[in-house]
Design brief:
Elements lengths: L2 H7 L3 H38 L1 E2 L24 E4 L2 E6 L6 E2 L3 H5 L6 E3 L20 E3 L6 E3 L13 E3 L4 E5 L12 E3 L4 E4 L10 E3 L4 E5 L17 E3 L13 H31 L10 H31 L3 E2 L9 H6 L1 E7 L3 E7 L5 E7 L7 H12 L9 E6 L4 E6 L6 H6 L11 H21 L15 E3 L5 E3 L13 H4 L6 H6 L6 H15 L16 H6 L6 H5 L11 H14 L10 H10 L9 H17 L11
Parallel strand pairs: 3-5, 5-6, 6-8, 7-9, 8-10, 9-11, 10-12, 11-13, 13-14
Antiparallel strand pairs: 1-4, 2-3, 15-19, 16-17, 17-18, 18-20, 19-20, 21-22
Helix pairs in contact: 9-12, 9-16, 12-15
């Protein structure tokens, strides 16, 4: 029997030994390969760490355990996926020094790199070697110099690039325009010059605000908000004002001047020739009156007619310039002159705006709100956005009645709400001799605000912050204490240079830490408003200025839940013990809305649903009472929707 057949038919000592040897070799080789891979990742990431200065925050990184093993607690700020380094999130660490791209290049699974809010003072690193990157966040550093035109060549997987608030100069790299998967691009707050490249596809988020760009905005970016381009005096085209007619070339100007001179010479020669012929002609006497008198009289009439025409034209233009643009058909129309003749009183004045109460002689009482911080907005963009706001219709929103556009200032006209703002009712009721808001009224106000905010999210989905300036002074109260939101939807038309000092969304944790707002930023504002209503404390971090990390949410979180009833809830809020559980329930909703980590924060849908589930009292037998009260609220809301105001504190 052949040797090979014998080995097949029965276990062969030689074959068994060979298989055992091969198995041992394979297992040993596999262990070697795996350990080499871990060692490679460890060495690479430690080399990257060594290239950084002031890296004390990374002191726990060491080679004792692999970065992405089960026991990798000493490797913070590293994101892993299936045992490989997938992301580096090194933010707010005051890091500086060089960025060792070569060591990062040795991490083949690296997909996200965030070095935001540090102190890097270097020129652009060769990041196009990291061809697998999907997200790149370098905002709020001190990167300087030009970004090479081909800096993003071959980086076809990139989806998000944030380079805001650095010191980059020169042209926007042309390689950005050809990234096939790019969705977000933030270049604002730098010193880029030249024109904006023509992108090959539509972006979801884009900003080049506060640079030194010029020229016409590419058509594919025309649907972006005005704020994406503010702070660039040389830019034009939609969504900004139309570009002026292109200047003629020097050659065409010279030709035109020569033609004008020749024409003047010809006209002068003709005039001289006519005058000479008149001198040679004999005078013919006439008994008729001198024609000069008739001509003079005719000229006087002509001059008078021209004067009247000119006055009429100026008057017509003045009338047009004083005309208000109404966005609602269910209001009596009037012009600006009538508002100016009306008796008026100032309601509030600040950096953001000034509000005036105007009682028309033969009409309703209106509120005129004057804005000076919209001077970067073009007429067409402003008008379109105001008409969009004018189409909104909800019992918990203050309807816009009319608007007026001037380049230097804008006016918004609304109805007047006699009951004032929630801020005054919460914090100044004693001075006004009014009673404090009880628990039932406060819950009703919170639910009304939730409904109004939910409506804004649904009707204005393109706005990343549909309200943008949600606070107690922008919540008015009808006679039945139904809340009416004001100052909503204005983020796209506000001067972005001053917006961070003014608007509530720019006091949020995500903007303070990362320089950006999200779809959940208004939810954060809603949470802060609930805390203000429940605690009776004014949120100091919403006052004028850049904001701070100190907030009502931090204070409430510092109090143990067992002491919420005695330490947190407003003592002037009349409530019974049967409502204690519902107050705690609403407080927890507020804290979920104020979660610093945006990923952990609830979205608007969850926030509204949970809020509407809160009852006035704990007893489940009172469900029918809550239902009836809700129905009554809706009826009173509809009945009072005609009495509203635009009182704002800047």
């Amino acid at each position: 029997m052949p040797f090979w057949r014998a080995c097949v038919c029965q276990p062969c000592p030689f074959t068994m030994a060979l298989l055992t040897s091969l198995t041992s070799f394979t297992f040993t080789s596999l262990l070697f390969i795996l350990s080499s891979s871990y060692a490679s990742d460890t060495d690479s990431i430690l080399k990257f760490k060594d290239s950084l200065e002031d890296n004390n925050a990374l002191s726990s990184w060491n080679a004792s355990t692999p970065p992405c093993s089960d026991s990798s607690a000493n490797w913070p700020y590293i994101q892993c996926y299936k045992g490989n380094i997938w992301g580096l999130k090194l933010e707010n660490m005051r890091l500086k020094g060089d960025i060792d791209v070569h060591s990062l290049e040795e991490l083949p699974f690296l997909r996200t790199l965030s070095l935001m809010n540090n102190d890097f003072e270097i020129t652009w690193p060769d990041l196009n070697k990291l061809v697998g990157l999907k997200t790149l966040y370098l905002s709020n550093n001190k990167f300087s110099g030009e970004v090479p035109s081909q800096a993003f060549q071959d980086m076809k997987w990139l989806k998000k690039i944030h380079l805001s608030n650095n010191q980059f100069i020169g042209s926007i790299p042309i390689s950005l325009s050809s990234i096939p998967r790019l969705m977000e691009l933030r270049l604002d707050g730098n010193q880029f010059t030249g024109t904006i490249p023509d992108f090959h596809h539509q972006l979801k988020s884009f900003s080049v605000a506060n640079n030194q760009l010029e020229g016409e905005i590419p058509a594919i970016l025309s649907n972006m908000p005005v704020s994406s381009f503010s702070g660039n005096e040389g830019l034009c085209g939609a969504p900004l004002d139309k570009c002026p007619t292109k200047k003629k070339s020097i050659t065409s100007i010279v030709v035109a001047v020569v033609l004008v001179i020749l024409a003047l010479i010809v006209i002068g020669a003709v005039i001289l020739l006519v005058l000479r012929r008149r001198k040679q002609m004999p005078e013919v006497p006439s008994e008729n009156p001198p024609t000069s008198e008739k001509k003079s009289g005719s000229r006087e009439l002509s001059d008078e007619g021209s004067h009247r025409s000119c006055v009429s034209s100026r008057s017509s233009r003045k009338v047009d310039s004083m005309r208000l643009s109404f966005v609602r058909d269910d209001r009596e129309q009037f012009d600006l002159q009538e508002l100016l003749r009306a008796s008026a009183e100032i309601l509030g004045s600040g950096v953001y705006s000034s509000s005036y109460k105007a009682a028309l002689l033969n009409g309703p009482v209106m509120v005129v709100k004057r804005f000076k911080q919209m001077n970067n907005v073009g007429r067409q963009e402003f008008q379109e956005h105001m008409r969009r706001i004018g189409r909104l219709n909800h019992p918990n929103l203050l309807p816009l009645v009319a608007f007026y556009y001037r380049k230097e200032e804008k006016l918004l006209v609304t109805d007047y709400v006699y009951n004032g703002s929630l801020a005054v009712r919460l914090h100044g009721y004693q001075a006004l001799g009014q009673p404090s808001l009880d628990w039932g009224s406060r819950l009703k106000i919170v639910k009304g605000v939730a409904k109004g905010l939910d409506y804004l999210y649904k009707e204005m989905p393109r706005l990343i912050a549909p309200h943008g300036h949600l606070k107690s002074s922008n919540v008015l109260l009808s006679e039945s204490l139904d809340p009416i939101l004001t100052d909503y939807g204005l983020v796209p038309v506000i001067n972005q240079d001053l917006a961070p000092d003014i608007m509530v969304i720019y006091k949020s944790p995500e903007y303070l830490q990362h320089g950006r707002v999200t779809k959940k930023t208004d939810v954060w504002g809603f949470g802060i408003l609930i805390l203000e209503i429940l605690t009776g404390n004014f949120p100091a971090n919403l006052q004028q200025g850049r904001g701070s990390e100190l907030s009502l949410a931090n204070w409430v979180n510092s109090v143990v839940p067992e002491e919420w009833s005695s330490e947190v809830f407003d003592r002037d809020m009349e409530a019974t013990k049967s409502s204690e559980g519902q107050k705690v329930k609403l407080l927890k909703i507020a804290l979920a809305c104020c979660e610093t980590d945006v990923d952990k924060r609830c979205d608007i849908k969850e926030a509204v649903e949970r809020t509407l589930e809160v009852k006035e009292i704990d007893n489940e037998e009172e469900d029918s009472y809550s239902s009836n009260a809700s129905e009554a609220d809706n009826k009173s809301s509809k009945a009072s929707s005609g009495e509203v105001s635009f009182s704002i504190d800047g």
